[in-house]
Amino acid sequence: MSFILGLNREIIGFTAGNDVSSRDIEGENPLYLPQAKIYEGCCALGPSIVTVDEVGTEPKLRIECKIFRSGSLVFEGSTNTSQMKRSFEELRSYLCRHNPVPPGSVCLSGTGIVPPDDFSLEDRDLVEISIEKIGVLRNSVRRL
Fold it and tell me: CA 20 to 30 Å from 65, out of 21, 32, 129, 132?
């Protein structure tokens, strides 16, 4: 789940976000997490933006993730934004505390659904992240 900031750094909307990490880089050392997220195609957003007028500033929405390989479901998980450790407002406040943050910035709130450690995405896998009231974000995996 991602939030979008407005002109005054307030939360104006939400969308789905698929924040993919390179597990082999991340697994070597937790300090390598930033390097595991900077390659081409590691983040997708969409399919739509819902405003705070539609869902409020702290929406409680179900999130599901499904991964398909050759048409077969190989992973499925779900969570709810009510299970987040920090509120969207806490995340926004921390982000904006000492940083110039331009309007339209998008902040991904963290990983709520994680496949098992022995699972890796493969070329041509299809990842679907669905969030009620937002829609389904679909990404095909491509090895670059």
Answer: 32
Q: Which DSSP string corresponds to 72-94?
A: EEEEEEEEEGGG-SS-HHHHHHH
Residue carrying structure tokens 């869902």: 55
30: Cβ–Cβ under 8 A, 6 or more apart, which residues?
none
**Which two structure tokens, joined as six digits, stand for 34?**
């930033």
Would you say 28 and 135 are in contact if contact means Cβ atoms under 8 Å apart? no
Q: List the CATH code of the domain at 2-140.
A: 3.90.850.10
Positions of the chain with pLDDT lower than 70, given as ranges: none
Residue 13: its pLDDT value, please? Answer: 97
Round to whole Å and give the CA distance between 71 and 15: 26
Predicted TM-score (pTM) of this structure? 0.90
Using an 8 Å Cβ cutoff, are 106 and 45 in contact? yes
